Amino acid sequence: MSDWRRHAIYFAPPQGSALARFGADWLGWDAEAGERRETFAVPGLPMPREALVEAPRRYGFHATLKAPFRLSDGHGEGDLDGAARAVAAGCGRFELRLQVAAVGGFLALVPDEAPPALAALEEAVVTGLDAFRAPGDAAETVRRRMVGLDAVEEENLRRWGYPYVIRRFRFHMTLTGPLQPEARAAVRAALEPALADVLARPVPAAEICRFAEGGDGAFRLVRRFPLGA
Asked: Any idea what the CATH number is for the domain that residue 200 is in?
């Protein structure tokens, strides 16, 4: 496609890995194949899976490194890809051990311990690719502020277009939309055994990915860029 609305730089599991398959099955959207998946079931959920994943589904299974943005004037997709490839090449590879946890009101996969290389990668992506980000519009800025931002987050929003970067970055792979505490606990209890085998081994962080939003509002994985190449 050439009519992408926005682009984003995400971490995604290795292509074809057990975690990538689980994420696509759970969300019901395979961002790499650009296909819906409808038949996956996890025993013990307190509500239909489709209701749980309605909010995160369209973004695909990922962790945000640089939040969705429109390309700035004078830059094309090839320019962005070239810069992303260079940023990735300058960052080292590492591994993550992930677990299910609450992040605010939703559930996500988060590292049990975040290695320094993860923070270095995120900062390199945020700062190294910012020239390709068109400024957000007023409505987007107002929406970001509605949740309440501290001074650091407000400065991040002004400088980088997104509040939760660098000092406020927290790696997470979103699994659900917002849930009440009782439902959140029940979904977590169902997900942890379903993910036990998938998360038994460390997840390699060997690439960053460009995702792009199509006219249907769904994000697709467009390109992978190897770390340390």
From this structure: 3.90.1140.10
Could you tell me how far CA 227 lies from the centroid of its own chain?
17
pLDDT digits (tens, 9 = 90+) for 47-75: 999 999 999 999 999 999 999 999 999 99
Q: What is the pLDDT of residues 78-111, one digit of tens each?
A: 999 999 999 999 999 999 999 999 998 999 999 9
The answer to the question of residue 1 being in a domain is no
Domain span holding position 80 = 6-226
Give me 68's structure tokens. 């969705």
Contact yes or no for 125/211 (Cβ under 8 A): no
How many domains, in total, are found in the chain?
1
The C-alpha atoms of residue 46 and residue 181 are separated, in whole angstroms, by 12
Number of CB atoms found within 10 A of residue 111's CB: 21
Give me the pLDDT at residue 147, please: 76
